[in-house]
């Protein structure tokens, strides 16, 4: 019997890149097809089972399943079959940077259109999979609002700060409506709202930008979560129960130097302005006091094992300081292409290598070895048993490891 039951059956989570945005060239991208996850879902989920991971972030591609208000969810049938076979619990991502061609996200009809889709998606998965049920209505609202609202990378291709602010509020309204629609179908459904951990600093020679950088770090970064939690714009219907579980994504490029136009400049690993991950996590915890996961994290290339070690050290330091952390999502499970260049990022647990017309999954052994070390350190399984859902994670094991290892916050990424 767990002394401190966690929300999920395993502490380590993974997931599959599932973006379906309209890119700068006005062409629809489908990262599920580009990584062949649609063709290899069965073996991809078997890889997770063999890693001792029983939870996966998985996408339902809204632009591809809805045509003029009619739904065809058969695209996710291979994933559902794989989940059934491998006993993997999904966190369904309902909007990953893409929406149908005929949708105007700035229209009054947008929240209702999204809610109808969420309701239909919930019915579809509930009829085919046992609970518990987890959903991410709209992935990374803050980042999506930059990409589509200020930088013009993806639809709706807006290019001003004002557009970004309007787009973000529209996405928050839709997310809140989506949560309510899902809970009409599954009242006990849990939500995981994902957004990046961000720290922005002024250039050393531009003290005049300190106020703007501070605002982006301590106000702008939190606004989407604040709206969903009902702390800001309460007229939109947010509440702590709608926010539910907070998923904070952590990547090296989340710590940046402010730029007045375009994306900010990522700080180099030796920059003395970097804040420890533990400190960033606690900014979120103190603001919401909701259960948390690290919603995505990964290093690149040969740095993957070191990145995981740093993330776990910082996470345990945060746990010892009182943060209610329920999981760490190693994302993605399989490699993904850089959106701009198409080159493989080598950030997955498995790399992808061409093998005829297939993309072979090649394990990153040092990364996996580091995962195994942490599974043992936290008293976690390394291979799933027949029923990974019969006993939740005992978070007391994680707390005990934090107290035993005495990790301290460290801003040194080396």
From TrEMBL:
One of its GO terms (biological process) is carbohydrate metabolic process. Keywords: Hydrolase. This is Family 1 glycosylhydrolase. Gene3D superfamilies: Glycosidases. It comes from the Bacteria. SUPFAM superfamilies: (Trans)glycosidases. GO terms for molecular function: hydrolase activity, hydrolyzing O-glycosyl compounds.
């Amino acid at each position: 019997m767990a002394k401190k039951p966690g929300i999920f059956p395993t502490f380590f989570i993974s997931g599959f890149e599932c973006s379906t945005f309209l890119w700068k060239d006005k062409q629809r991208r489908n990262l599920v097809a580009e990584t062949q996850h649609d063709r290899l879902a069965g073996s991809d989920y078997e890889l997770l089972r063999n890693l001792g991971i029983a939870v996966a972030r998985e996408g339902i591609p809204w632009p591809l399943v809805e045509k003029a208000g009619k739904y065809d969810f058969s695209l996710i049938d291979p994933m559902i079959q794989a989940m059934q076979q491998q006993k993997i619990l999904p966190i369904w991502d309902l909007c990953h940077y893409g929406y149908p061609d005929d949708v105007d996200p700035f229209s009054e009809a947008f929240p209702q259109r999204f809610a109808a889709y969420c309701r239909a998606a919930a019915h579809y998965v509930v009829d085919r999979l046992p609970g518990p049920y987890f959903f991410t209505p709209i992935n990374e609202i803050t980042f999506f609002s930059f990409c589509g609202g200020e930088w013009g990378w993806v639809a709706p291709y807006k290019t001003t700060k004002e557009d970004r602010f309007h787009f973000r509020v529209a996405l928050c309204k839709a997310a809140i409506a989506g949560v309510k629609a899902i809970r009409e179908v599954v009242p006990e459904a849990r939500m995981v709202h994902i957004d990046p951990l961000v720290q922005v600093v002024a250039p050393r020679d531009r003290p005049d930008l300190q106020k703007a950088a501070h605002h982006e770090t301590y106000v702008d970064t939190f606004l989407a979560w604040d709206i969903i939690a009902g702390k800001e714009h309460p007229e939109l219907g947010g509440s702590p129960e709608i926010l539910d579980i907070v998923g904070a994504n952590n990547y090296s490029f989340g710590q940046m130097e402010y730029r007045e136009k375009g994306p900010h400049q990522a700080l180099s690993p030796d920059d003395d302005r970097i804040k420890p991950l533990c400190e960033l996590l606690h900014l979120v915890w103190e603001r919401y006091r909701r259960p948390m996961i690290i919603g995505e994290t990964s290093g690149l290339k040969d740095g993957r094992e070191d990145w995981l070690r740093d993330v776990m050290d910082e996470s345990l330091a945060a746990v010892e300081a009182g943060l209610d952390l329920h999981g760490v999502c190693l994302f993605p499970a399989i490699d993904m292409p850089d959106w701009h260049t198409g080159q493989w990022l080598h950030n997955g647990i498995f790399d992808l290598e061409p093998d005829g017309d297939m993309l072979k999954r090649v394990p990153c052994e040092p990364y996996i070895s580091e995962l195994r070390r942490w599974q043992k350190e936290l008293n976690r399984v390394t291979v799933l048993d027949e029923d990974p859902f019969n006993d939740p994670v005992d978070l007391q094991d994680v707390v005990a490891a934090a107290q035993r290892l005495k990790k301290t916050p460290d801003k040194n990424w080396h």
